[in-house]
Fold each of these.
Amino acid sequence: MDAGGGQEIEQLIRLLGRLPGFGPRSARRVALYLLKEPQTRLVPLARALEKAGDAIRTCSSCGNLDTLDPCHICRDPLREHAVVCVVETVGDLWALERAGVHRGVYQVLGGTLSPLSGTGPEDLNVAPLFARLEAGQVREVILALGATVEGATTMHWLMDRLVAYGGVTVSRVAQGVPMGGALDVLDDGTLAAALGARRPA
Amino acid sequence: MDAGGGQEIEQLIRLLGRLPGFGPRSARRVALYLLKEPQTRLVPLARALEKAGDAIRTCSSCGNLDTLDPCHICRDPLREHAVVCVVETVGDLWALERAGVHRGVYQVLGGTLSPLSGTGPEDLNVAPLFARLEAGQVREVILALGATVEGATTMHWLMDRLVAYGGVTVSRVAQGVPMGGALDVLDDGTLAAALGARRPA
């Protein structure tokens, strides 16, 4: 017996141990923290999880996770809907939003092209972007992909497809994103600089 | 807006950010991980939290957190109920159980004496131990408290009270070099204790 008693406690520790950044030790620590004062710690968290799980939607337009579909960004009339920033993950979108450096909308690919992990173009969430491009609703596409091999591969694939749309400016975030770095761990200043110094692709 | 949308998501991130070892960044990472696949990640965790919260009891005998009261240790007839190991927290109890080094029962104090944080003897869960001592049910008390100022203060206070029970053996866990530990990373206090408690090889 690992946790000292109770199938329910062991199951909780097992699930906590699967969270990113968690090991058995941190899972036990968090479980103990929660179980020590269930009413003020465990119950509110369980309730918040349930509410978020019920409310969560994937935006059918951009791929963002939100409680609305279309998400609050896609339905915001004050944003520049003709400027689309392409990111890999929702975490990247959140990072750019926290930095407040992009006034347009987004397209969340949900991944990158990767022959190794078997991710092909058909796995990327790009259809809504090309639909908007076809409809002539896009003036500029900003490629904000990570400076990784997969990010670069994905960017080149996208650029190849974007040349078909003559009137559309395609730019990429400036190098300044550290090699091998993911966007969502960068500080706001770096994100702002990278976006501000974007150049024609 | 921090999370990119939805009061429910923000509330979840806020609560996750309060967990021990969490900051805003890890809270967002875990929230994203859970929200990305709600059915296989978020819902099972919410359910496990709810179940554990419903099932959890504080053992009225030793202070352990379990789904039973008395806990599975206190009701185990194969354990030596006359040997009581005194620990500070349920986490300490779980650690000793994982190590499988104690065949008796426990008394979880739930804290240590600390004038700074205002924890006095009346805040410690010691009444069940003294009730058992009064009833003559205890042969040995093992003090397994942390090697901190508060742990030492608590231990001395307990030893003062335990001398009243003449027939009871009182011992304390040894201080020294941890298994696998190198000497040059240990603090002076540990080295002094380890050297002072040296025994014939």
Amino acid sequence: MTSRDGYQWTPESGLTQGVPSLGVISPPTNIRDTDKDGPWDVIVIGGGYCGLTATRDLTVAGFKTLLLEARDRIGGRSWSSNIDGYPYEMGGTWVHWHQSHVWREITRYKMHNALSPSFNFSRGVNHFQLRTNPTSSTYMTHEAEDELLRSALHKFTNVDGANGRTVLPFPHDMFHVPEFRKYDEMSYAERIEQIKDELSLNERSSLEAFILLCSGGRMENSSFGEFLHWWAMSGYTYQGCMDCLISYKFTEGQSAFARRFWEEAVGTGRLGYVFECPVRSVVDDEGGKGVRVTARDGREFVAKRVVCTIPLNVLSTIHFSPALATEKVSAMQAGHVNMCTKVHAEVDNKDMRSWTGISYPFNKLCYAIGDGTTPAGNTHLVCFGTDANHIQPDEDVRETLKAVGELAPGAFRVKRLVFHNWVKDEFAKGAWFFSRPGMVSGCLDGLRERHGGVVFANSDWALGWRSFIDGAIEEGTRAARVVLEELGTKREEVKARL
Amino acid sequence: MTSRDGYQWTPESGLTQGVPSLGVISPPTNIRDTDKDGPWDVIVIGGGYCGLTATRDLTVAGFKTLLLEARDRIGGRSWSSNIDGYPYEMGGTWVHWHQSHVWREITRYKMHNALSPSFNFSRGVNHFQLRTNPTSSTYMTHEAEDELLRSALHKFTNVDGANGRTVLPFPHDMFHVPEFRKYDEMSYAERIEQIKDELSLNERSSLEAFILLCSGGRMENSSFGEFLHWWAMSGYTYQGCMDCLISYKFTEGQSAFARRFWEEAVGTGRLGYVFECPVRSVVDDEGGKGVRVTARDGREFVAKRVVCTIPLNVLSTIHFSPALATEKVSAMQAGHVNMCTKVHAEVDNKDMRSWTGISYPFNKLCYAIGDGTTPAGNTHLVCFGTDANHIQPDEDVRETLKAVGELAPGAFRVKRLVFHNWVKDEFAKGAWFFSRPGMVSGCLDGLRERHGGVVFANSDWALGWRSFIDGAIEEGTRAARVVLEELGTKREEVKARL
């Protein structure tokens, strides 16, 4: 099936919108008439991992659940497109056994042996190419690359003589040490200013490229504390970051994983769903009678509870009644800063499989790695750009091709580009969450607050792997449990049976 | 409530059996008559974390479930006793956010801020005391301790120039690299023999004490591959091991965590339970009519499916019909090797809070740390012995007190001992699972196999954090899902409602 989302470019066909995905759901609905099928126990708005998890948990627990999704597919900001027998990850990709919620699901769905490594240094060029200006490259071994980044990241994170362990001992309880607030309020730029004299030019370029790869933002608007949070979640080491952030992916692509949640929920017989159904308003002012969700096309759905998984940067497009609390509104209006551009390039040099590169700050794609070999024998490179030097990859393909080429001039010709422009996606308005300075300390609690019959859940305000697939599952799990506790576990049925 | 399990000794009262625990369930049953309450959808045998997880998942999913437990309490090999306002962990203790299944439950039950660090080096003696003979001690800083163990463990694990990453890239898929089989078949002693010339005396003593702490066995009967598996799960580093294995515990004790599962299951109204009810036989030869479980006291219970969570070393005490498969029987007969002795000592020296020690090989307790400060202002030391120099702590308290004293001669007087003798416990017959050489490659698949209507689940044969609380939850989750898929998700009810 082909989604309307995503773009592909080849020299032969040029730029085309829409790529195939296992995540597309067809037909887009299994309900005919809202009067006949409702009222629902729960409506879940959004079919990303958070919504899928909540939907799965609620249907398994016996609740009649309606899933409303704006797109034609499941997965939200994580989905894959299988093109010519090769899976391209359009958004969230990597997982690791140190990510508790996603790994719990991976073992539960018996996919622990369905993962592949991104890095493969067993053949080909086997080097790291650092470009700090458009006229030259420095080549290093991957061991030297690791040492460069390890050294730079240790300087960056070492605010307490213990690489953050003292100021952030419990990353899920971020302000356990109240002093941590000051790091949350500090920007990347401010932290770099504190350590700039300790950094070599190569360390500084690599460090900035790496931390901007994490935030997708700019040095001035990315929170240093949020990076420290990723760092603590990863075990306070560079190797932990590499392992958790960019090492292991699903052999068949993310959408194969998302479908497991979907199929389990469908299999209960308790799931109603409507895809291609963006929501206009969520009204909860009927005195306990339920929450009414109205779609853009005017259809109305009513349920006892709503789980709203709409991302932070999109929340302000929905009308809520009664009005949301101030903390939520101010966070929604500020938005998170991640304007990452992720571009896949299939290139005609098989030896690039073992290549990694940083081109910063001059290039519009700053970090890339050899991520696979396509069935045609070409190398698949995955390339990242950030808001610090932003590109809209669909607007001028020549400029996108130039940015890919600048990563390793003369090393390859591009046979294919595949990407999703998350910044222009009206249902995402950016990539994974990354905090502005002070945003987490100021707004996290407020974002996690329920609002009458509406439970808000999204990786954007998870406690652990916030921004990750793991955080989405954490939040979907939380939301389902809130509803489960409130609506009971179908006590009346039980009593009838016991 | 006081459990029959566990021992306490004080100078005033001497040795007494049975200590208080939040995990005791009273009254011990909520069913009156098997004819009236049965038949059950599922019987879960065993109320440790594996059984509790399966029970919780199954009752939430709508199944009428009966939990049978031999003891008077939940928690199995993980439970805590709160004595004079201080929790002593009688078995499994430590958790970390890199342990996926247990951490998923910790966040789900909102206990992410209910943890405390074991180590506290902020005051007191603040040193590591290494004793390789009974006549002298070497004192080191904790930094030097870390460097000693890091160096030794890197030599021990570095079979591939990559500290195990190459031979064990996917620890949940242990024989992904078939060559790994040879490490699984290798004993600790054989591996030490390979590297003995690279190890200093202090490295070798510390290393042996540390790896025996992990296995609870002897150098000759502990599998090197199983240690590499722990190492890989921990991120292939010494620091990762310390973080995951011995750093964070529940402020209120394990039993406070176990109760969350219990209360959720009870709250569904679908749970029947009988404590103090050891099982005698499990019979599944009635041609699809169900599985019959008979208790030692002759009571019979029938269910469509049985989830059997009895530990490996106890399985052979149960009569199964039809007979179990050869692979299971041979693993049951061999048993795992962990004969760990864990002894808590409350000592009258508050400065020991920041002490750690290894006394090996001469002493019957080889590894200990300052683990807390009791309300009386004393230091709580947690001390471990292994089968390599075994002690039965309840048999001769003077000998136990001597072994505690030998850890740091002259440094303290013992005010209290608290322990559970897992080796003599008829429902455990050892502590956490640790593999003999070749046992995992030979028996793991067989141990995980179902047997007709009986699903076998236990941390002893988990794929990930095997032997850990995490592995127990992994297995309980798996078992519940198997049953859920087979018995359906109560389709008939659903259709009636939709």
Amino acid sequence: MSPAVFIDALQNELQHTQYGQHPPELYDPIRYIMNLGGKRMRPLLTLMATYLFTDDWRKAVRPALGVEVFHNFTLMHDDIMDQAPLRRGQLTVHEKWNGNIAILSGDVMLVNAYQLLLNIESDKLAPALARFSRTAAEVCEGQQMDMNFETRWDVTEAEYIDMIRLKTSVLLGYALELGGLIAGADEETTRHLYEGGMNIGVGFQLKDDLLDVYGDPTKFGKQVGGDIIANKKTFLLIEALQQAKGSVKDELTDWLTRTDFDKGEKVQAVTSIYDQLGIRQLTEARINDYFTRGFANFDQVKADSDRKNVLIQFARQLVERES
Amino acid sequence: MSPAVFIDALQNELQHTQYGQHPPELYDPIRYIMNLGGKRMRPLLTLMATYLFTDDWRKAVRPALGVEVFHNFTLMHDDIMDQAPLRRGQLTVHEKWNGNIAILSGDVMLVNAYQLLLNIESDKLAPALARFSRTAAEVCEGQQMDMNFETRWDVTEAEYIDMIRLKTSVLLGYALELGGLIAGADEETTRHLYEGGMNIGVGFQLKDDLLDVYGDPTKFGKQVGGDIIANKKTFLLIEALQQAKGSVKDELTDWLTRTDFDKGEKVQAVTSIYDQLGIRQLTEARINDYFTRGFANFDQVKADSDRKNVLIQFARQLVERES
């Protein structure tokens, strides 16, 4: 089975999903954000996990789309909170319409996510929704922690990992767990899938932080150094703040507190501090650690090896991405 | 059975419900808004409807609280959208904390509502959640319509009734329907309960509009005439705008467009226009019509007459309220 079959099934369902019609201000933003594209990573993981244990993976398509709708709901609300002007190169919903519409459309999207998840067979519905609800609350917890970190300079590595685990990774873990649940896999198996998704997810987010500084500008989609310019509290900056001593610490603090600076110069200077402190190697080691743990979790999942390879190849692509 | 037993059971559950702990900025606002009080009308309706058909009404307590949490979620988000400074005489969440926290806490509340509803027995879970989700989406549709009406002067009576039906009444209908569903009542019965709640709900909201103008100032909690001062598009104003002709129409339009006016004078003048047009009688007739239809729906519900009386007495109190 090629991933293209899963992608086609998802695209087909995406095109046929009716979120609602009236009033249009409520439902047009949902269609808009769902059509902005994206890798559809989460629902693909769900379908691949279902396919591990059953040929009838199509019964997971609508619930998988529920996970994608939930993810896009979090993007719509996060963009309001972050006052982000653009999402995937297009205007964010609160910019194209307004803040109130972005709040209310997002609310309906969260309801829509549950509506899609209600297509899970009734004997599996309660546990699947309980785990989804716990995960959804955790994603909100992660977003709140992320906002709290903006005004703190003493965020520890452990706190940061906990934040990205909640904000990003638990949903990747749940996407895989859901696939297993729908296919009727046992508890041990769904736990391995969840842990695998979570570990890959943490590695994935740390790689995001790394690429922002050390990515190849010809391959990386965004401006290299964007996080440095914005003083974004990434894994790299948190490590540097904890490890820098003496004059290096002073220089880093100086760059973080300057209000008037040349962007290129700041990126170069902070990157050079990271280089001196060996932050790149340290981050790469942590990324590899999480990816290794994730693939070890997948190793524990008992399933047909050809089917497992579809999932593992897909995870490898996520791991090896350059953008 | 006295309603006090239901109220006690709800209060007890309210006190023991854990919404979550960390980070506190996310969960403190939930405890705050849930502790502001209120009539707990919706969960009481659920418990009374369950009690119509079974002694085991306590199994409905947690799902009933889910409806109350959902209702308070809508208040938290509506207050952001309406920029309301106060809710039940206390600071609104976005004023006491900030807008971002009110968005995100509200999001978790919607998840919490589903978590409480997951306590419905598994054989009834899927239909109960499907109907809840449809209702939740409709409440959002009603709120969007309400916002759209703010900038329109040509809102028809039918559009207005449709808006309050969605924004307020469907949730009262669902609260009763849910009680029936949990008790295992048949489809015809739950439909009568839903329709009854919906009709009472529309009457209830129209009475709110009426009391704002014709309420007894010594009994009405808010300032009489508040809606007139704010040009709020109520049933009374919409009727007056449609019925006024000639000089009366000119006078009404004049009051609606003045930016500088004496509040008492405006309230007196607009009320006098309503009097001339017979708006009070017309509104009272519509309220009675909806209440009559609601009680007729309840008449169709086949249940023990003592148990039905508990529900009907409670509905009468809602109907006869002066504040």
